[in-house]
């Protein structure tokens, strides 16, 4: 080795865990993990029922690449389930996936502890998991103590995990397993170089979500099972399924069989009732609450394939006067048939969906006024004339949700652009700017953030629209370099750098429930889904868990790069975080 | 169906073939392809030797996911090989991959021919392939008639393919198979809806390449086999392997065993001599000539791990005064040890590599002058003082190539920035602008195009550099939104829209040998490789085959989207071309 390269020979402090715990005090001693490690659960309730549903079978079926299983999903996290999931996390995550962090160390450097000396190896062979009332202490500013946990791993191998809830166990086990690496010279040896470790942790935001569009292109339920697994590694806890849009209606609604049969792209591309239940149940097993959005009254064209009478301005040519993207078409607002349809739809969906989540998203974005000029019962394009109809439509839907005990979420336009009167329990999802987030909070509503300037993962890959060359190139409105409206591409650093609280007065911040990172589906299908999501969703997850405002440092790069390797080992085709040279040579790629 | 949607019910003219043939006259009758179709080869020479190497085994080994095989690659396309490859292309491409173009037609529309009436089904059961002197006729402006071919498929099922060469057979078979679709209701039925078909085709450019960086991150040889397969579908014929750079030296050089052992990221991340031979041989079987670049004298830091004495300014901190990216380090220029090393290197590589390609790329880009201020034998940073050394270094290397009968390629800087005197047979690869391309041509050299404004596939994913937060955020030079130097992302439309001939006077155009699309590897490894390459490399391939200047129309979108589905069926995890709704509804996504 020639001498100037020596500047990079300082052993890099790989700190492993993503998202970074609120309090994290790692040491630098080695402990080994026994493959036969025992779990002792203390203070948890006896399971209310003994499940015949095996998490092991379930998970193995998914990861052997089979389509969704018919097994009955779990409705509650029983002690038995919790034990299985905990063992599974550690076993698969450490001993099967076998992460050897070679590329985080200087080339040809000896970075692993020695295997030989069996005498002096200290093993962890027992993990005590206690359910306690977490003493928040330094974490008092954190909102959601029910997901809190603490890990105390002592130098002699004693491990005590304290959690406030069952979900805390899942988080603790994931943090714990991320402290371990497989040894490259042995298939049964795994170690942590970070002992002793003290961790106290709880999330900054209660609602830590991903909004996934399963409508614009076909996303099979089996893919979403993998997305849920990956989300749980980053401690995300909400999956918002944007389940229908103008382009297709993939969701089976038993009350209206024609809806998906005619509205899905193809009869083979339908999310059946069972698919949805399995995805929601799988989410539950991984601490991820899966809720649905039926976007209304805009973004509804696909309903017209089964029920043409409900839609105004369907698939107009040209479309751009009537919609933000093709095809145009919206639910009529002055139609009892539409009212009956939506009531039937919600009465079908809500009883099933509320088993898994007490949220339901009613949509409400990008409503086009011109479309109502073509609706003979409305015959107007003015906001003033449309608003009373929109208010009545929304009131009715919110009442239906209330009857089912479900909390509504709507897009910001309903409150900010249309100035509708909404009950105070309605959660407002903002997407355009932090000015709008501030406006929503000022109106007294709780809100979800996720600005398109940072958290729209679809941006920057180019427009999906075709130049209209029938009128000659000169008139084409799609011009080089063919960017989309929200370009540039949001690289992971930009995602991480998002600070939704920046211009929000302190007095309003408690109304912020959390945020969601978004993947709109115009240019995403099953083949490129992983690449579009990861590692960027994980970058957002640390903002949501730890809180915003942490600088984009090399340390963040290195931890996220480790996380990406864990995702890859789980079968997720994640995009890259950093060049191998930079990971191997700490400090070498700064500017 | 509600009436306005009817505007999209016109049967879309899916024209299937990518790249579009120069002359393509499809019909609209149906012909069926017999699974037992016979090939009659006429006019080809008796194979010079009978190979014991089975293409079938080879291809199947690759696609069952195994690592590279030890089988001996083919050195010439014998008649036997040609027959095997032809049968394989059709069999795998049509009957095994089974492309059913459902998403290119209106939902729930009957787009397939009826299977029932066995009597009236006309089958193609024999394909005559004749080697002839192609009458160029309308193709007279095309440069490379040796790859020309013609297909005449008559309505009665008679098929005659004429080709000027063995490579023409490969192209013809790929075009032919792209005319066929699998039938969704039968595993043995495949049809073309485009009969009768007349095709006359030859490439606009002789050199149609991809420059793939296998140095900055580990790209396994097995991945490159898949890249070659995919390239051959788009009729690309040159794979430029950027085989070493500052960050790592993955290439085994038997004359210098330490070079890769110490210079690769890890001993498990080495391209062995056999790996290289298999990749080059695999290329040969697919009509893709694989040639190497050893970039010199810049981009050579990794040599210093084995031979520290050869490198000036290695891995300096800060690096940015000494290199375009970290780590800094260049070959000394006034050193007989460097001369001896490079001679030994080329004498090791060239005899092996020239079996497969008579090109060798000597690099020469981004040479940093400051690095030579730290070289005690040079002790200068002025271009005037460095130039004579660079001229001598380059002369020597070009002489070595000449002794092996190999044509040199160098980056544009050698001619344009350093104004070196280069023999007229040296091919100049341009990358910065069409002004520079024009300048190179004016100096009388033949050139390769590939501007970073359109054909740098790595651009726009964000910088790989870390902010230097040790000096405080305010001083960090890496700022939001963390873009890279050549952002934005080059979406496939921008790739397709590239017209390298635009500002080039007609009288110089014959000096343009062709072009290459580039994937620099800072943020690409085995996991995201397919996504970074496809479908964008295919978009570039049509520019190279058909010639530039074709408008980015919906028709192009639809054909490229079909091509992408073929790539996906071959196991390539390609990015998306277009939303399914737009493909199903012709004209619906124009603006």
Question: What does this 3D model show about the protein?
Answer:
With 591 residues, chain A is an alpha/beta fold. Chain A has two domains: 13-201, Chitobiase/beta-hexosaminidase domain 2-like (Chitobiase, domain 2, 2-Layer Sandwich); 207-552, Glycosidases (TIM Barrel). Helices cover 29% and strands 16% of the residues of chain A. In chain A, the strands form three sheets. Chain A has an eight-stranded mixed beta sheet. An eight-stranded parallel beta sheet of chain A has the order 11-10-9-18-17-16-15-14. In chain A, helix 7 (336-353) runs parallel beside helix 8 (383-403). The model of chain A is unreliable at 1-12, 46-72 and 136-143 (pLDDT under 50). At the A-B interface, helix 11, helix 15 and helix 16 of A face helix 11, helix 15 and helix 16 of B. Chains A, B: Residues 17-179 form the Beta-hexosaminidase eukaryotic type N-terminal domain.
């Amino acid at each position: 080795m020639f001498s100037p390269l020596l500047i990079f020979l300082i052993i890099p402090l790989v700190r492993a865990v993503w998202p970074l715990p609120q309090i994290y005090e790692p040491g630098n001693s080695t402990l080994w993990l026994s493959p036969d490690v025992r779990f002792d659960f203390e203070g948890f309730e006896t399971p209310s029922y003994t499940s015949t549903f095996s998490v092991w079978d379930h998970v193995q079926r998914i990861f052997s690449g089979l389509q969704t299983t018919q097994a009955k999903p779990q409705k509650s996290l029983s002690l038995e389930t919790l034990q299985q999931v905990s063992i599974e996390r550690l076993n698969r995550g450490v001993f099967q996936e076998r992460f050897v962090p070679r590329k985080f160390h200087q080339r040809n450097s000896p970075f692993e502890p020695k295997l030989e000396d069996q005498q002096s190896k200290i093993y962890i062979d027992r993990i005590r998991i206690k359910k306690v009332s977490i003493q928040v202490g330094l974490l008092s500013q954190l909102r959601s103590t029910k997901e809190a946990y603490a890990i105390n791993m002592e130098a002699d191998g004693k491990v005590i995990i304290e959690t406030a809830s069952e979900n805390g166990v899942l988080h603790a086990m994931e943090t714990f397993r991320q402290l371990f690496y497989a040894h490259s010279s042995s298939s049964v040896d795994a170690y942590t170089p970070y002992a002793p470790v003290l961790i106290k942790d709880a999330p900054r935001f209660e609602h830590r979500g991903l909004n996934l569009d399963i409508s614009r292109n076909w996303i099979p339920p089996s893919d979403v099972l993998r997305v849920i697994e990956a989300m749980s590694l980053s401690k995300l806890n909400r999956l918002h399924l944007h389940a229908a849009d103008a382009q297709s209606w993939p969701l089976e609604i038993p009350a209206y069989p024609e809806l998906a049969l005619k509205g899905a792209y193809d009869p083979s591309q339908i999310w059946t009732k069972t698919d949805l239940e399995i995805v929601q149940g799988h989410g539950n097993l991984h601490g991820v609450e899966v809720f649905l959005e039926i976007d209304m009254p805009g973004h509804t064209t696909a309903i017209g394939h089964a029920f043409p009478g409900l839609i105004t301005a369907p698939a107009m040519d040209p479309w751009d006067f009537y919609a933000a993207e093709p095809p145009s078409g919206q639910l009529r607002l002055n139609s009892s048939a539409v009212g009956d349809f939506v009531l039937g739809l919600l009465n079908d969906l809500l009883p099933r969906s509320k088993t898994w989540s007490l949220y339901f998203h009613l949509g409400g974005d990008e409503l086009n006024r011109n479309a109502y000029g073509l609706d003979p019962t409305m015959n107007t394009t003015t906001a003033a004339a449309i608003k009373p109809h929109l208010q009545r439509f929304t009131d009715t839907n919110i009442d239906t949700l209330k009857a089912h005990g479900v909390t509504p979420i709507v897009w910001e336009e309903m409150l900010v652009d249309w100035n509708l009167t909404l009950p105070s329990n309605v959660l407002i999802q903002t997407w355009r700017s932090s000015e709008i987030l501030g406006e929503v909070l000022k109106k007294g509503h709780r809100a979800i953030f996720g600005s398109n300037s940072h958290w729209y993962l679809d941006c920057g890959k180019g427009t999906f629209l075709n130049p209209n060359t029938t009128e000659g190139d000169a008139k084409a409105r799609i011009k080089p370099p063919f960017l989309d409206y929200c370009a540039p591409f949001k690289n992971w650093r930009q995602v991480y750098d998002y600070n939704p609280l920046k211009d929000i007065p302190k007095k309003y911040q408690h109304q912020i429930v959390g945020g969601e990172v978004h993947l709109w589906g115009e240019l995403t299908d099953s083949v490129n889904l992983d690449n579009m999501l990861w590692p960027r969703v994980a970058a957002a997850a640390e903002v949501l868990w730890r809180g915003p405002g942490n600088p984009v440092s090399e340390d963040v790069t290195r931890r996220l790069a480790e996380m990406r390797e864990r995702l890859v080992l789980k079968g997720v085709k994640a995009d890259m975080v950093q060049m191998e040279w930079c990971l191997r040579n700490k400090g070498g790629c700064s500017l």
